[in-house]
Amino acid sequence: MVQSLKAKLRRLPRGTDESPLRKTGRTHFGRWLVMERLCDEDGKPSSDELTVPYLLFTANIDGDEASYLSVLVERSQDDMHEIWSHCIGYRYAGDDAGLVAYLLANRIRTRLFFTPYPTATVQKVASAVNLRKAFIDFAVRSDGIAAADLRQNFFDWYRRQPGEVTC
Amino acid sequence: MTEAPSGSVRSNDRRPAGETAPSGVAGHDTAMTLWSPVRWWGVPLLRLGLFVIRHTGLTLPMLRKLSFIDYARWALVKEFPRVGEPQGKDPRRRHHMMFESNFNGTWNQYIEAFAQVIPLNIKLFWGSSINFPGPLPTVPLLAWVHRHHFDVQYFDTAVDTATATVVMSALALEEKLRAFARDSEGLDAEAFQRAYHTLLREAEKDL
């Protein structure tokens, strides 16, 4: 069962628009990993044992957990049900809301979270990165041109930029 | 879990033949997940310390100095959520600190930078973890990290073409461009050109 789950996770698309995490439009980062044992540092019996393996899913997201999980399950229904069907307590085939409730009931509380850009959404990050690249290209092309052309070219370029950039 | 240098913990996570890309890497980002056992006296200290940092922002400016970190997360875990049989009753287990982070670069670079830039924070977070060797020197620290790290089977990021530093620069540049476009619209060509060159100087570190 564990090997089947690991194989399923490794087969998931990533780095493309087919990635189940990218399909949500709200995932900055996300991961799945299987924990089969904890590292025993002191040799004392049972202090670090796991009775069963655990599947850990973590994600940095925009918005609240409940609506995020609903979107994740809805947009990658088959994959999400197949992944969590490997887990004890899963009995939600065809029941997206049930799966979301199951996931919410199995959360671990984060005590401290740090990110250097806490208020930027996924869309804002993506558009800012694209805008930066576009402006670098513009600045290189515009080096040394006449003042009148520079002004016209800048505003022509600026008004063509997609997203939140408006003039 | 990765194999410790001493061989005391062996990984059964064998990557299938043909899979060459590490699953813990997406674009510029590397994923790290650590679970470390915490001594009993460390639990209330960690709860207090993490609470204080969370509500005062203390030490976060130091974390921002590590500009290659996309994020970091800390959790204290005693019991896993119960779903019923055949999960079984967990033995009496000590608390574990879960630490998770994404960063740009290699593990060695990340751990060494952490240890050298914020050694006191490292001691706060992991000083009560069993057999924690301390932030410096970094060789035993790296070995300890490897013992407690879990390989990911799947990791993805929304924008894998940009490092954390680039994202911060891009967000800062966007604000500057908005302000510039708004403030320069009424300028004649000569004044616009001067303002544009000022923008380039001020935004140089963001480009």
Overall description:
The complex is a heterodimer of chains A (167) and B (207). Chain A has a two-stranded antiparallel sheet. Chain A has helices at 2-11, 20-24, 65-75, 77-84, 96-104, 122-141, 147-160; strands at residues 27-35, 54-61, 112-114. Chain A is elongated. The N and C termini of chain A lie far apart (56 Å). Chain A is an alpha+beta fold and 167 residues long. Chain A has two domains: 2-104, no CATH class; 122-160. The model of chain A has no long low-confidence stretch (mean pLDDT 90). Chain B has 207 residues and is of the alpha+beta class. Chain B folds into two domains: 25-148; 164-206, no CATH class. Chain B starts with 24 loop residues before the first strand and ends in a 5-residue tail after the last helix. Mean pLDDT of chain B is 81; it is low at 1-22. A four-stranded antiparallel β-sheet of chain B has the order 1-2-4-3, covered by helices on one side. At the A-B interface, helix 1, strand 1, strand 2, strand 3 and helix 6 of A face strand 2, helix 1, helix 2, strand 3 and strand 4 of B.
Provide a short characterization of the protein structure.
Chain A is α+β, with helices and mostly antiparallel strands. Chain A is built from seven helices and three strands, in the order H-H-E-E-H-H-H-E-H-H. The longest helix of chain A has 20 residues, at 122-141.
Q: Largest interface: which pair?
A: A-B, 76 and 95 residues
Low-confidence stretches of chain A: none
If you average the pLDDT of chain A, what whole number results?
A: 90
Runs of chain B in which pLDDT lies below 50 for 5 or more consecutive residues are 1-22
Q: From the alpha-carbon coordinates, what is the Rg of chain A to the nearest angstrom?
A: 23 Å
Shape of chain A: elongated
* Helix residue percentage of chain A: 40-55%
Roughly how many Å apart are the termini of chain B?
39 Å
Mean pLDDT of chain B: 81
For the secondary structure, the number of strands of chain B is 5
Tally of individual helices of chain A? 7
The amount of helix of chain B comes to 40-55%
Strand content of chain A: 5-15%
Structural class of chain B: alpha+beta
Q: Main sheet of chain A?
A: 2 strands, antiparallel
Helix/strand order of chain A: HHEEHHHEHH
Strand order of the largest sheet of chain A: 1-2
Question: How is the quaternary structure best described?
Answer: heterodimer
